[in-house]
Amino acid sequence: MPQVVGFVAPNSLLAANWERSVSLIDVTTGQVTPVHETETAVPGTVLLLPVGLHNEEIQLQWMLQHVGYKYRFGSNTATRSGLMAEHRGYYYAPDSKTALMGGGPNQTYAAWRWRPLPESCQLLRFPVGASHPITSEDDEKTYEGTMTSPEKLSAGMILERGGTSVVIDTAGNLYLASGQVFIYNKQREQIGTLEIPERPSSMAWGGPDGKTLFIGARSSLYAIRAVSSGSERR
User: Fold this and answer.
1) Does 116 sit behind a cis peptide bond, omega within 30 degrees of 0 on the bond before it?
2) Could you tell me where the beta strands, DSSP code E, fall in 112-151?
3) How far apart, in whole angstroms, are the C-alpha atoms of residue 148 and residue 156?
4) φ and ψ of 57, to 5 deg
5) How many H helices and E strands in the chain?
6) pTM to 2 decimals?
C-alpha cells in the first residue's frame, strides 16, 4: 500500500511505500504498475520532495546529499557512519523528468535511505531554484527550503511551530497542519485558525480555480474555499 503520493501531470501519481518500492497510479483508470529504478538522474530531472515531514528536516538534506546512517544490528537507533556517497536511485513517471529519489531495495541499510520519504504527508515538485516552506513534526519547526542544485537544499527557519503539512496561497499566506490548521500572513504572523473536526495530516489545493483547500484527516477529507488560489498548482 502507498504511504505517500505525489501528482505528476497530466494524470499520474508516484507512490512510495514501506516496502521500499515505487508504484505508478493512473488516476483516470486506477491502474497500478511498478516503477523500476534508474541508477543515475537524467539531465533536467525535477524531484518530488517531502515538504510535510515526520522526521527532522536535516534528514531530507542528507537524503539529497547521499549521506547515510548505519544501523546497529537489531536496533532502530543509528550511529553516524562514513557513508558519504551512499547509493540513491531515481523513479520516474513515464514520459517525464519528474522522479522520486530513494535507495535501492536490495542494498544494505536500504531502509534508512528511503527516509524521510515514506514517513512524510506531502510531496511537491522542486525544480532547481524553487522555494517552498517545509515543515517538520519532529523538529517542531517550519523552514523555507530552496533547491539550490539537483542534490542540495538550503533551509532557514521561518516558524517556531512544526506540523505534518504546509501550503501557501498566491497572496503569500501560509497554512500549517499542526493539530489544527493555522494560517499565517506574508510576515508569518498568525492571522487565523481553521478548526477541523479531526486532526489534519495533509493538505492540497484544487478545484477549477485553485481556491479549494482540501484537508486530509484521520478518517475524512475536508474542503474549504479560500479567497486566494493555491500557489502549488504547477
Assistant:
1) yes
2) 122-126, 131-136, 141-149
3) 13
4) -60, -35
5) 2, 20
6) 0.88
C-beta separation of 89 from 107 below 8 A: no
Going residue by residue through the chain, which has 234 residues, state the pLDDT in tens, using 9 for 90 and above.
Answer: 557 889 998 989 999 887 778 999 998 998 999 999 999 999 999 999 999 999 899 989 988 988 876 656 655 555 545 566 788 899 999 999 999 998 754 444 444 567 788 889 999 999 999 999 999 999 999 999 999 998 899 999 999 999 999 999 999 999 999 999 999 999 999 999 999 999 999 999 988 999 999 999 989 999 999 999 998 754
Residues 201 and 121 sit within 8 Å (Cβ to Cβ)? yes
Q: Where are the beta strands (DSSP E) in the chain?
A: 2-8, 12-17, 22-26, 32-35, 46-53, 69-71, 78-80, 89-92, 98-102, 122-126, 131-136, 141-149, 152-159, 165-168, 174-178, 180-184, 190-194, 200-206, 212-217, 221-225
- Where are the domains positioned within the chain? 2-127
Residue type, 77: T
- The β-bridge partners of 90 are 38, 101
- Please state, in angstroms and as integers, the Cα–Cα distance from residue 174 to each residue in 19, 108, 137, 206, 228, following that order: 33, 39, 16, 16, 11
- Identity of the amino acid at 111: A
Residue located via cell numbers 538550503: 154
Query: In 3D, which of 77, 57, 58, 81 has the Cα closest to residue 69?
Result: 81
